[in-house]
Design goal:
Blueprint: E1 5-9, H1 17-32, E2 36-40, H2 43-52, E3 56-62, H3 68-78, E4 84-87, H4 98-103, E5 106-108, H5 115-133, H6 136-146, H7 167-176, H8 178-182, H9 200-213, E6 217-221, H10 224-234, E7 242-246, H11 251-260, E8 263-267, H12 287-296, E9 310-314, E10 321-323, H13 325-332, E11 338-342, E12 375-380, H14 382-385, E13 393-398, H15 407-417, H16 424-436, H17 440-470, E14 479-480, E15 485-487, E16 494-496, H18 502-507, E17 531-533, E18 537-541, H19 558-567, E19 574-575, E20 579-583, H20 590-608, H21 613-616, H22 618-623, H23 625-628, H24 633-646, H25 649-658, H26 667-675, E21 679-683, E22 696-699, E23 703-706, H27 718-732, E24 739-741, E25 744-745, E26 751-756
Parallel strand pairs: 1-2, 1-3, 3-4, 4-5, 7-8, 7-9, 9-11, 11-12
Antiparallel strand pairs: 6-13, 10-17, 12-13, 14-18, 15-16, 18-20, 19-20, 21-26, 22-23, 22-24, 25-26
Protein name: Arginine decarboxylase
GO cellular component, one term: cytosol
EC number: 4.1.1.19
Length: about 750
């Protein structure tokens, strides 16, 4: 690494002139050796630099600083093996706390050695630290790139040279820079290893990631978590075998079933009044309940075996609900030998004690006995909430004796889905993403994200309270989906969420668990401790409905809010009827969430002052002038709120997703008919009783309401009534279309869906 920064935490305005002069000479020598020196003359300044400077490579901390122990603890909690030298004027170190002696790398008595010698010791330690920071593959790729070898292999741009021969290529080269293209290498570079053979530095990187994530085996996947899901399924399920499938799963799971010919038996999650998808109740995962589901399944007859071989559960859900993974493994392990937890949005779970037992790799021999414990797959979209490049993912495996994963067999499946032309910067990104979470760094990074999310949540509630207390304006405001009150288990003291101590909320899981019967979450069938709301996934709630489904007279549909936020350059992750989801990733800042808070306040002011659609959503008016000309924002909100209530959209959503229609064919059987042209488009008005040929996925919530091979059911059934309600909504409110995959719209606004002939 070329950048080296030395922190000097010492007040050089005190002490003798000789000591100060000696310290200046040490710092001058460090600068001559190309180290940057940053000064902190108080513990407060040192803590600020520790927080903000990730490029520190060594530190000198004076024991005479106002709070040296605080600074040392912060450095140890932020960095792994950072060399720290203690500057002391004492004649002996015997009086220092034992833990201080254990963590420091050495001592500096300013007048005992020459400045050059002291600076040399610090510089060597800093360079050794920087070299050790780099993980296996990234380190070797840098070394290879530094040799500047000629390329006689693919890719044909040859380190970017080809781009320099074309005007547009030159623009592309200049935009990204030479280093990207110099590290875009061919698999012919043997010294960097093989993604297929898991050898060399690539294999070292995967094994290093397995250690960091607590896995027995880890595989790097360069086509996203969707491919990781398909690999895990394809490696575990054979034709006509039964598979337990969370109805809240990503569509990639269903693609896996299509590839394998597996037969799905669905486990149906709960829903609440907001329309948010909840967890599968623990009672539904018990062996007797699963056996009943299998017995009722149309796919049980003729299956390869009467018992399911595999189960797949989404953890965490799209709205941030995390299971007790050990409890899930205990329940489903009574039925299946392999459990797949799709943790696309939860790669950070292992690195903070708030999520203890909540992630797949926590299901080890210490958690469950071997005769109960299934082998666990955890598929993670590393780029989503860790710092990797887009499409970067990992598959982690925790083996159990009942059905262990054989690497050679699994790798055959892996090679079917992996590319023979991997992008090496993506592999390096996965290597670095894992290394960032190693040691205290993972805890520090997740602590920061959790802390900022909680600060935002409390700020929203406090603002709402201040607005009500002011009494000089309409008393409504937005909220955040979370408990209204929390209890400190150590003291029994109950706090309103807005007033709870920050340290309690960020360290105590019981502040976030879904207690049985809790009105704030609205989910039925919960078991104490079974499910936890992840604080970093924040659902902003809008007036209009509550978690129990009670509808208010005044409502602000979330689609209107998020369209306004887009005009402010704020794009949310997901929008439901009266909630929108924002993610507090490791890249969040106070400025970022402060801007969102300001936008929410501005929306309230625009609503309360009856601003027109022309002022609030000018793009909408431009696209649909006949519909929205002269309309005020409150009127638009009222119209949409009334339409949602009249059509019973939220209650139909609940019923449609918790009461799947009968299956006629498996996904694999349906696909065979699809590719042979055995389908036709059918108008929604005429579709009752037909069998759909493709998934119908509505967003919100982004989950299939109809699977390939399922019947649409009766005309007055919940699924078709729900789809008709969406169709009517789209006609009534142009510019706010429902995002529904598998549905085509004609010029009249009619829905068309592909069905089997």
């Amino acid at each position: 690494m070329s950048r080296s920064t030395i922190l000097v935490a010492l007040d050089n305005s005190t002490g003798g002139l000789v000591s100060r002069d000696q310290l200046e000479r040490i710092c001058d020598q460090l600068r001559e050796e190309d180290h940057e020196v940053v000064w902190a003359r108080t513990a407060e300044d040192a803590l600020a630099l520790t927080q903000s400077r990730a490029d520190l490579s060594a530190a000198l901390v004076s024991w005479d600083l106002d709070s040296p122990e605080t600074v040392l603890r912060a450095l140890m909690g932020r960095f792994t093996k950072l060399p720290v030298f203690l500057v002391t004027t004492a004649t002996s170190v015997d009086d220092l706390p034992l833990w201080v002696s254990e963590v420091v790398s050495g001592y500096v008595w300013l007048l005992e050695d020459t400045p050059d010698f002291v600076a040399g010791r610090i510089g060597v330690a800093a360079r050794r630290y920087l070299d050790g920071v780099l993980p296996p593959f990234f380190r070797e790729m840098r070394r290879f790139e530094d040799t500047h070898e000629y390329s006689w292999h693919t890719p044909a741009h040859a380190g970017g040279v080809a781009f320099l021969k074309s005007p547009v290529g030159r623009a592309f080269f200049d935009y990204y820079g030479e280093r990207l293209f110099r590290t875009d290498l061919s698999i012919s570079v043997a010294e960097l290893g093989s993604l297929f053979e898991h050898s060399g530095p690539i294999g070292d990187a995967e094994r290093n990631a397995a250690r960091i994530f607590g896995a027995d085996l880890t595989y790097f996947v360069l086509h996203g978590d969707s491919t990781a899901d398909r690999i895990a399924c394809h490696a575990s399920v054979a034709t006509d075998e039964l598979v337990l499938v969370d109805r809240n799963c990503h569509k990639a799971i269903y693609h896996g079933l299509t590839i394998t010919g597996g037969r799905p038996v669905y486990l149906v999650p709960t829903r609440n009044g907001y329309g948010l998808m909840g967890p599968i109740p623990p009672a539904a995962m018990k062996a007797e309940a699963v056996a009943e589901q299998v017995r009722r399944s149309p796919f049980a007859e003729g299956a390869a075996s009467p018992d399911p071989v595999y189960a797949v559960i989404t953890n965490s859900t799209y709205d941030g609900l995390c299971y007790d993974a050990v409890r899930v493994a205990e329940l489903l392990g009574a039925t299946v030998p392999r459990l797949h937890l799709d943790e696309a949005w939860f790669a950070y779970g292992r690195f903070n004690p708030l999520y203890a037992r909540r992630y797949g790799m926590s299901v080890d021999a210490d958690a469950l006995p071997d005769d109960v414990r299934p082998t666990v797959f955890s598929t993670q979209s590393t780029h989503k909430l860790l710092a990797a490049m887009s499409q970067s993912a990992m598959v982690h495996v925790k083996n159990a004796p009942r059905s262990p994963v054989d690497h050679r067999q699994f790798n055959e499946t892996f090679m079917m889905h992996a590319t023979t032309s991997p992008l090496y910067p993506m592999i390096a990104g996965l290597d670095v993403a894992a290394a960032m979470m190693d040691g205290p760094g993972g805890r520090w990074l997740t602590d920061e994200a959790i802390t900022e999310a909680i600060r935002f949540r409390q700020a929203v509630v406090r603002l709402g309270r201040r607005i009500k207390d002011a009494g000089d304006r309409a008393d409504w405001f937005f909220g955040a989906w979370q408990p209204d009150e929390v209890t400190d288990p150590a003291t029994g003291q109950v706090y309103s969420f807005a007033d709870a101590p920050l340290d309690l909320l960020r360290t105590e899981p019981r502040c976030w668990t879904l207690e049985p019967g809790g009105e704030w979450h609205g989910f039925e069938g919960m078991e104490d401790g079974f499910c936890l709301l992840d604080p970093i996934k924040v659902s902003i709630t809008c007036p209009g409905v509550d978690a129990l489904g009670n509808v208010g007279g005044m409502g602000i549909p979330a689609r209107i809010l998020t369209m306004y936020l887009e005009t402010r350059g704020i794009v949310v992750e997901k929008t439901d009827a009266y909630t929108c989801l924002i993610l507090f990733s490791m890249g969040i800042t106070k400025g970022k969430w402060g801007t969102l808070l300001d936008a929410l306040l501005d929306f309230k002011s625009l609503y309360d002052s009856a601003a027109t659609v022309a002022d609030v959503l000018p793009g909408l008016l431009k696209e649909h002038p006949d519909r929205y000309q002269g309309l005020a924002l409150p009127a638009l909100c009222d119209q949409m709120h009334n339409q949602i209530g009249k059509s019973e959209l939220t209650s139909l959503l609940d019923e449609a997703f918790t009461h799947p229609t009968p299956a006629v064919f498996t996904p694999a059987q349906t696909y065979q008919r699809l590719i042979r042209g055995g389908t036709e488009p059918v108008r929604l008005a005429d579709i009752a009783g037909r069998t759909v040929a493709t998934m119908v996925v509505t967003t919100p919530p982004g989950i299939p309401v109809l699977m390939p091979g399922e019947s649409t059911g009766e005309a007055n059934g919940p699924v078709l009534r729900y789809l008709h309600a969406l169709e009517t909504f789209d006609r009534e409110f142009p510019g706010f279309p429902s995002e529904t995959h598998g549905v085509a719209r004609d010029s009249a606004g009619d829905y068309w869906i592909a069905c089997l002939r």
